[in-house]
């Protein structure tokens, strides 16, 4: 397998292992609904640390990942704050803005992406897929890193999204009209079909009223010639006999065709020597459309439309996002990538389009998808979370919501073939008419523009749902635990310990905090003597005693019992001699053993 080489790789190769665990601190006033770490989450903090914080609960549990990392065009002015302490890389990894003139900016980009991709790989489920938006600047490096981290055999597709409806006339070279969406997936993943629209179903325009439903005719001959399939077919109504076109043969045997004729599955067009055709019934085709690798803006939206939607949602304040992702783009990715009850993760959340798309799809199809959004910038609450709050409850707006569906330059050639242009407009109307109050068509200058229009009076309807807002707490350090400066919740510290001890995710539904019980794996139970109370932690109540060990063991004599506690009043030797299957692990020092993968 090929390997990507970049400066600093040896220092960031396993950097994700050294990232400290930081608990998620819930801010109930900034969320919607009852706070819960198992529902929709918006996390404010560095996404590398946030991904590490998610591991204990979500390792191998995320069904679909979408990220939109910096494209590294030299214009983002983004910085690196990862704590890689190797002197050889500190000089250029020490929070320096990246500009076009920076000769090492591609290496820096790889250094920031590598550990994040490593953690995303750990979070992705065995039936999951990851989609990454990127442009030409780093696409080849991204592919090389993902080949190495996820495996080249897990590459699925390099999708092209047409993000603009008109060219950039001020472009120095080419007008960059598209972005890529790179997709990798586990061997257990299968892509979902897109819903069939009226455009696809319209082709099935015949119906014999025989209970088999609408059909369209298809070719009964094939190019691959076989003498056994070269025979005459007789029209039972007229007696007319037909042979396959020159150089071709029928698709199946003479006996099968006779049976199809008996079943009225062969269509004989009128008009003389027309070749017989096979009836293909809508009920026999897939109940969806196979996704293609080119996604035009007419199907999934464009950047300008995404900006207009943001302005509509934030009509009372200015929100600056140059290149937000289209809502339709994310809806398509999520629809293809996962089922209706999937967990979706976006660790470069930006304006929150991914969360909006999850709520929108749930509203449309009754799904129960969940999202986790991570945003490190200071607009995480005022923009990312605020957008989700507004689309959940609905937002004040009066006017006509307009969504551009088509924009086409009018030329003489297109006018001469105006029927094709009219058919395109008609197909767009068929596909989208149920989404809007009307479909507007107008010509401005030399452009034909088709727009979906929806009347909104006073308030845009909310999508419903809820989410919990979190911030990353301080890292779990020995000194701060000992002084009581940081005392995480029982589940917070327990999920970290459980993951370290078992390399599995803690099922928070099975936690029994009052009994100090965390959960079980195949061969052991895990217990935690802990309360977020420094005085209690210093008291004898927090110690493992012989009687408490017996109590834990009585829960299940056939399994080993691992007990995390600040202290113990019984020796391991005594526990072994009395055949009590309990093993003591001291707190807090066990928190800093970095698991080796």
3D architecture notes:
It is a single chain. This protein is α/β, with parallel strands linked by helices and 597 residues long. The protein is built from 20 helices and 28 strands. It has a 10-stranded mixed β-sheet, sandwiched between helices. Strands 23-24-26-28 form a 4-stranded mixed β-sheet, with helices on both faces. Helix 12 packs parallel to helix 13. It is globular. Residues 589-597 have low confidence and may be disordered.
* CATH-level-2 architecture of the largest domain: 3-Layer(aba) Sandwich
Radius of gyration from CA coordinates: 30 Å
Figure out the total of helices: 20
Structural class: alpha/beta
What share of the residues lie within helices?
A: 25-40%
| Total strands | 28
CATH topology of the largest domain: Rossmann fold
Give the count of structural domains.
Answer: 4
User: Strand sequence of the main sheet, in spatial order?
Assistant: 1-22-2-16-15-3-4-6-5-14
Question: What is the average per-residue confidence, as pLDDT, rounded to a whole number?
Answer: 87
Which strand-content bin applies to the residues? Answer: 15-25%
Unreliable parts: 589-597
Q: Shape, please?
A: globular
Largest sheet data = 10 strands, mixed
Cα separation of the termini: 20 Å
Query: CATH top level of the largest domain?
Result: Alpha Beta
């Amino acid at each position: 397998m090929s390997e990507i080489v970049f400066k600093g790789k040896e220092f960031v190769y396993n950097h994700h292992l050294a990232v400290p665990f930081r608990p998620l601190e819930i801010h109930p006033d900034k969320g919607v609904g009852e706070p819960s770490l198992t529902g929709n989450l918006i996390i404010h903090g560095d996404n590398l640390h946030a991904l590490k914080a998610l591991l204990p609960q979500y390792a191998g549990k995320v069904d679909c990942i979408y990220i939109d990392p910096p494209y590294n065009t030299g214009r983002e002015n983004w910085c690196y704050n990862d704590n890689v302490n190797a002197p050889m890389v500190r000089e250029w990894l020490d929070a320096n803005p990246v500009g076009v003139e920076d000769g090492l900016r591609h290496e820096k980009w790889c250094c920031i992406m590598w550990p994040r991709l490593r953690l995303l790989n750990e979070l992705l489920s065995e039936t999951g897929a990851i989609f990454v938006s990127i442009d030409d600047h780093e696409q080849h490096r991204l592919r090389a890193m993902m080949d190495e981290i996820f495996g080249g055999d897990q590459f699925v597709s390099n999708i092209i999204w047409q993000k603009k409806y008109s060219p950039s006339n001020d472009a120095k070279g080419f007008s960059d009209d598209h972005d890529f969406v790179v997709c990798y997936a586990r061997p257990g993943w299968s892509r979902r079909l897109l819903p069939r629209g009226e455009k696809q179903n319209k082709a099935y325009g015949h119906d014999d009223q025989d209970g088999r439903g609408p059909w369209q005719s298809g070719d009964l001959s094939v190019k691959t010639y076989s003498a056994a399939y070269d025979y005459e077919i007789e029209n039972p109504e007229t007696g007319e006999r037909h042979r396959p076109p020159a150089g071709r043969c029928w698709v199946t045997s003479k006996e099968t065709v006779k049976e199809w004729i008996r079943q009225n599955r062969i269509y004989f067009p009128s008009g003389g020597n027309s070749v017989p055709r096979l009836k293909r019934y809508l009920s026999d085709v897939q109940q969806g459309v196979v996704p293609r690798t080119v996604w035009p803006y007419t199907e999934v939206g464009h950047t300008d439309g995404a900006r207009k939607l943001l302005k509509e949602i934030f009509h009372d304040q200015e929100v600056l996002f140059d290149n937000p992702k289209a809502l339709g783009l994310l809806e398509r990715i999520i629809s293809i990538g996962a089922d209706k009850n999937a967990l979706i993760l976006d660790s470069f959340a930006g304006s929150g389009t991914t969360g909006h798309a999850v709520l929108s799809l749930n509203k449309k199809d009754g799904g129960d998808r969940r999202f986790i959004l991570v945003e490190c910038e200071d607009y995480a609450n005022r923009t990312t979370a605020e957008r989700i709050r507004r689309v959940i409850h609905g937002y004040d707006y009066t006017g006509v919501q307009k969504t551009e569906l088509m924009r086409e330059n009018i030329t003489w050639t297109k006018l001469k073939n105006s029927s094709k242009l009219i058919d395109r407009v008609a197909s767009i109307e068929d596909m989208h008419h149920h989404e809007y109050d009307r479909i507007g068509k107008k010509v401005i200058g030399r452009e034909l523009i088709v727009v979906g229009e929806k009347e909104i009076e006073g308030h845009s309807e909310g999508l419903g749902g809820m989410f919990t807002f979190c911030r990353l707490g301080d890292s779990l350090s020995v000194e701060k635990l000992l002084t009581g400066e940081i005392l995480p919740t029982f589940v917070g510290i327990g999920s970290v310990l459980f993951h370290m001890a078992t390399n599995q995710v803690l099922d928070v539904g099975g936690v029994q905090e009052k009994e100090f019980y965390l959960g079980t794996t195949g061969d052991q139970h895990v217990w935690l003597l802990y309360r977020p109370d420094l005085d209690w932690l210093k008291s004898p109540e927090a110690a493992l005693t012989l009687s408490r060990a017996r109590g834990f063991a009585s829960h299940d004599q056939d399994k080993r019992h691992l007990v995390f506690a600040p202290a113990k009043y019984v020796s391991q030797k005594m526990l072994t001699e009395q055949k009590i299957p309990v093993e003591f692990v001291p707190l807090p020092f066990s928190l800093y053993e970095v698991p080796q993968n």
